[in-house]
Design goal:
Chain lengths: 162, 157
């Protein structure tokens, strides 16, 4: 019985069509060496292009993902370094405020200790590569969990005046 | 008696409502100059306008393992076999500092999710072990198994 279920599950998994291409990091093919981002690049954007070829018919909806390896988003201090109140729209420009205490160790940056909005390691290390293509239409909305969407809001203008 | 303060009150109400609905980036641009002590999201991540950007929200939902994929977009058309899709990447995220790797993935899904043969293989392996044990015990029973209810092995003190 297990064998029958097993073959069924394996068949379902094999039915998934997937194609991926590494474009940065150790083991990247030399044709994509131009995509590498220098560690001290100061946030400059490196344009490059990459071609993915579907190995078999891929039925809609086809999902576009970016994959990161060796990035420990599950590190204890990383996970805790965020301010949910700030992400929900709370605004504060005093460093001692409680909105910034949960962002330790990264609540402010720079020589002037400029407060981050939003603060925290998770927000500051946000993945900022962009992918565009003219071959197909990529829908970039409807990708977040619906339950997450309600937890994020921008501060109101009035709050910023105080 | 006509309401004398109503008009001005409703005016101020609608004005404040209008103000609060002004989108953040517009107001922020004016405010940033006045408040250099804050660094906003679209200053440290220029491709992301504000915290309601879905890519940002997807990133903030932290992954459980060091090797993970995050959804970037959905393509609602079929892709024919062999058709090449060229992506223009604006690469800004440095991974060499922590020996990381970046990849771009296109994938379809099944009723179970993405491509993962582990569960299927696990079931097959366990199934084979069960069959093996069943045969083993069956043979044992045929060649020298004891009768049910055999009392010869009972030992009384």
């Amino acid at each position: 019985m297990f064998v029958a279920i097993g073959f069924g599950l394996k068949a379902a998994s094999d039915a998934v069509v997937e194609v991926s291409q590494q474009y940065d990091g150790a083991g990247t093919p030399s044709s994509l060496a131009g995509c590498s981002v220098a560690t001290n690049g100061n946030g400059s954007v490196t344009p490059c292009s990459l071609t993915l070829t579907a190995p078999a018919l891929m039925r809609a909806p086809v999902y576009l993902y970016y994959q990161l390896d060796n990035f420990y988003q599950n590190h204890r201090r990383y996970v805790a370094s965020r301010s949910d109140a700030q992400l929900a729209g709370a605004y504060s420009n005093s460093a001692g405020d409680s909105t910034y205490s949960s962002c330790s160790p990264l609540a402010a940056v720079g020589a002037n200790s400029s407060l981050l909005a939003p603060c925290g390691l998770i927000a500051y290390s946000v993945f900022n590569d962009t992918f565009t293509t003219s071959s197909v239409n990529v829908q970039e909305t409807g990708i977040a969990w619906p339950s997450d969407l309600s937890k994020y809001a921008n501060p109101s203008v009035r709050d910023q005046r105080t | 008696m006509p309401c004398t303060r109503c008009l001005s009150r409703s005016l101020s109400l609608s004005l404040s409502l209008l103000l609060s609905r002004i989108s953040f980036p517009i107001a922020q641009a004016a405010f940033v100059a006045a408040n250099p002590q804050m660094t906003f999201l679209n200053q440290y991540a220029p491709t992301i306008a504000n915290v309601t950007n879905e890519h940002f929200i997807v990133w903030m939902r932290v992954a459980a393992l060091p090797s993970f994929r995050k959804l970037y977009g959905i393509i609602n058309t079929d892709i024919q076999a062999g058709s090449p899709i060229t992506f223009n990447i604006g690469a800004a995220f440095p991974v060499n500092g922590f020996s990381g790797r970046k990849s771009l993935v296109l994938s379809t899904t099944s009723f179970l999710g993405g491509k993962n043969a582990f569960l299927g293989i696990a079931y097959i392996v366990v199934g084979f072990i069960c069959i093996l044990l069943a045969i083993l015990f069956g043979l044992r029973q045929i060649f020298g198994g004891r009768r049910l209810g055999d009392t010869s092995f009972l030992v009384y003190r």
